[in-house]
Amino acid sequence: MRRFGFGPAQTLILVSALVSSALAGCSMPAPDSLQDDVRPGQQWFRRTIGGGGGQTGIAIDPSNPEVVYVTTDNGGIVKTIDGGASWLSINNNIGNRLLGDIEMDPLNPSVLYVVAEVYSENLSWNDDPVNGELYRTRDGGESWEIVYAEGMGGGDGRAFGIVQWPSTRNILIPYDSNNPRRYDADDDRLSDVIYIGGWDWDASSADKRAGIWKSLDEGATFAQVALPDQNIWVLRHHPNDPERLYAGTYGDGLFVSADGGAAWESWRDRLPIPLISDLAIVPDSSTLYVATNGFRTEYAGEAYRDRRGIFKSVDGGSSFFRVNSGLERTSLNFEVLLLDATDSTGQTLYTGPWRGDYQGVYQTTDGAASWAPMTHEIREDPYWFDDFNNLWVLEQANDGRLFATTWRGIYRYEVERGRWAITANGLGNVGVRQVMFEPGSDSVIYLGMLDSTPWKSLDKGKTWINIGNGFKTADGSRNASASSFAISPAQPQVVYAAGIGSSGSYLSAVNKSTNGGAYWTPITNGLPPTTAEAPQWQAQDIVVTAYDPAIAYLALDLRSNGGRVYKTVDGGQHWSEVHAFAESPTDLAITATDPETVVAATANGSILVGRQGGSQWRSSHLGMGMIYAVDVFPSDPDRILLGVNVTGAYLTTDGGQTWEQVFDQRDLQPFISDLALSDFARERYRPTIRAVRFDPRDPDTLYIGHYPDRWMGIGILKSTDAGQGWTLLADKGWQMRSVSDFDLHPASGNLVVGTWEIYYYYQLDPE
User: Fold this and answer.
1) What is the DSSP string of 684-743?
2) Mean pLDDT in residue range 497-506
3) Cβ atoms 104, 62 nearer than 8 A
4) Residue 378 CB neighbours (<10 A)
5) Looking at residue 126, what is its pLDDT?
6) Comparison of pLDDT for 205 and 450, the residue scoring more
7) Residue 47 to residue 648: CA distance in whole angstroms
8) Residue 686 pLDDT greater than 70, yes or no
9) Is the torsion defined by CA of 209, 215, 221, 224 positive or negative?
């Protein structure tokens, strides 16, 4: 999974006072010079790699088209103030990282609303309903407040259901340009009326959280006013009448209301497919357009191809006809449809297919009589921009400029060059699996993340180089994503790495490089037979000894049964099984002693300690839940630190005979007072720790990384008294705080941290 435990061992070549004679005589180089662009008191610096993941919403300031906000499926929210040339994270104190739609209050461009997913298909707590949350900023993202969630407001206190996939246009704020105070009775520049389109995947529950939800008091309370059984895919109002609403549903067609949502008429029989993903309504006319998408249903198949696509009505919706000329080679599944506001004739529109071949943005200038693909930029680095992948959202600024979000990044249309250009500088939203310093340097960093071969930085994360050449599955048939590194302190150019499949899927991959990642070779001789098509095991973590680059350990999760620890003494030419157990392994740690001690953590709460080079094993079940992370003090095999799901962090100083809980719910509470969280969230906000590290210079100095699943984490905490007290390492540079991994440089004390982006922390203020 991740190699949390080996950070001290891999760098103990720099701290000889703590290690065995195997490292005797090694010098301790001075830390690299502390250079960066800083502001007073800043220690955290955001390091991104040019975007990734899915971007779920766009909002553009009508008074300044240089200011754009974009929400992401995992990485929170980003903002540009230079028209997309660069993006900065503005999560600040927002309480949730799984964000969906974002809408700007038409009365005030500094006020924005964001919906967040709490539960979707897979419920985390069986007794809780499907629901979502609504957040608001009044200052352009500098600070956030929880507006509405489960248990808030009057009435029954229920919240609407929200999912990110595929419901992304579910906030509607009506506005009457002829009477701006129509929806602002108290003249405070906050719209009184807010609609939310609910979505509820939980078909088994009688408590439906889908349908139309409406607030009349600036979001303080919401009522489910209509269509409780309908999952709302898109919610729009007519440009000439804000009380005339259109609701596209996932499975039951199009509904229309003429009275602000009190009563609804079904138009299901007017369209041949009941999955309505978007609408575009031409002002001052009887023309409207509808997009359909067979997403995750039988309608996505070839049997329904002639019924999907874009539809047009010229009689106010009484009848529709297909307008797919020029789109025939696409999947005919469309997520978004945009009417060009600069064309007063209503003839210019934009759309783009969801999945399939021939992706990109398509344009019509003749009222959808014909469509043509628009040119888009192709970039080889990062490699995910070598294709335009799944158009998700389209928005247009008041000056006509266009922005689009996709499965992999953000695009802006360049009129002068006639193409969609990638504008992902500073985007983030990549799923970091592991970050690791190269022994001897706090500038050289290895990075493993979802859906990508490995990366490397030579300058503290300011720039990144893909080092995926040869990084393959065990059978060599396909590329793998890097999930865990083990770098030899004795020979830092020797790097072992484990891999995973797309989006973390099960895959068999173990590779080695002898030239710092310039080229990789699969090393699986002696491991169970497997293929990329039918993987029989997944490598969860890998570690290497401090004194010999040829000795390494590998934790395998077997598809058939339980876990195994394998060892190589010849640099991966052959692996031998040294321990078998019934549980699934999650993490490995190793000491710097000779012989080494290896510690394995498991998903069911067991710790396995392998003494004398893994020849003698002892296991104990702690009964504390899934263990995400383990570290062992480099010169003391009895001192072990654990990061555990839900319950926090644990420390033993006697090899596991007794354990002390050194971070729990009570320790967490003082650090969450400023987070925008509902009471519902606070009751479920847990001290889940996914990354832990000893400071190899001091056995009482501990670091832990917090990651409470869907809600935003608090970041990195440090203790200098063996967990009796904790300090939060935080400043304004630290925005995405859900920590999946981190590494500590033992000489400088600097940190590199992986969340849904990368951060660098200077232990001292850089000069």
Assistant:
1) H----EEEEEEETTEEEEEEEEE--TTBPP--EEEESSTTSS-EEE--TT------SEEE
2) 94
3) yes
4) 11
5) 62
6) 450
7) 27
8) yes
9) negative
Residue 532 CB neighbour total at 10 angstroms: 18
Question: Are residues 620 and 656 in contact, defined by beta-carbon separation less than 8 angstroms?
Answer: yes
Map tokens 């269509």 to a residue.
227
Measured from the Cβ of residue 479, the count of other Cβ atoms closer than 10 Å reads 18
Give the span between the Cα atoms of 169 and 695, in whole angstroms.
47
Q: Which of 8, 11, 18, 12 is nearest to 635 (CA)?
A: 18
| Alpha-carbon distances of 332 from 26, 81, 272, 325, 537, rounded to whole Å | 63, 35, 13, 11, 38
User: Which residue, chain included where needed, has tokens 């999912």?
Assistant: 163
Q: How far is CA 132 from the centre of its chain?
A: 17
3-state secondary structure of 668: helix
Amino acid at 9: A
Chain centroid to Cα 16, Å, comes to: 39
Confidence bin at 657 (pLDDT 50/70/90): very high
| Alpha-carbon span 727 to 673, nearest angstrom | 15
Beta bridge pairs of residue 588: 600
> Distance of alpha carbon 105 from its chain centroid, rounded?
26
Of 756, 21, 86, residue with least CA distance to 433: 756
Share above pLDDT 70 across residues of the chain, in percent, rounded to a whole number:
94
Residue 340 has pLDDT above 50, yes or no: yes
- 289 is written with which tokens? 């357009």
Q: How far is Cα 695 from Cα 633, in angstroms, rounded to an integer?
A: 8
Torsion of CA 46, 47, 51, 55, to 10 degrees: -20
DSSP states of 438-481 as a string?
Answer: PTT-SS-EEEEETTS--EEESSTTSS-EE--TT-B-TTSSSB-E
Q: What does the pLDDT read at residue 38?
A: 60
Q: Tell whether the model's pLDDT for residue 113 goes beyond 70.
A: yes
Q: What average pLDDT does this structure show over 704-714? A: 96
Least confident of 186-195, 289-298, 490-499, 618-627: 618-627
| Predicted pLDDT of residue 35 | 47
* CA–CA dist 307, 605 (Å, integer): 52
- Taking the C-alpha atoms of residue 380 and residue 383, their distance in angstroms, rounded to an integer, is 5
Cα separation, 675 vs 715, in Å, equals 12
Q: What is the CA radius of gyration of the chain?
A: 27
Question: Given its phi and psi angles, is residue 679 left (phi above 0), alpha (psi -120 to 50 degrees) or beta?
Answer: alpha
Q: State the Cα–Cα distance between residues 391 and 168, nearest whole angstrom.
A: 12
* pLDDT for res 33: 36
Q: Are 427 and 76 in contact (CB under 8 A)?
A: no
All residues at 6 or more sequence positions from 452 whose CB lies less than 8 Å from its CB, including other chains: 52, 382, 383, 384, 430, 466, 468, 481, 482
Contact between 454 and 463 under an 8 Å Cβ cutoff? The reply is no
Residue whose entry in the numeric block shows the structure tokens 């100095």: 701
Is residue 706 exposed (0-12), middle (13-18) or buried (19+ Cβ within 10 Å)? buried
CB 257 within 8 A of CB 239: no
Q: How many CB atoms lie within 10 A of CB 60?
A: 24
Contact, 362 vs 350, CB < 8 A?
yes
Measured between alpha carbons, how far is 481 from 506 in angstroms, rounded to an integer?
11
Question: C-alpha dihedral over 201, 206, 210, 213, to 10 degrees?
Answer: -160
CA atoms within 13 A on the CB side of 261: 25
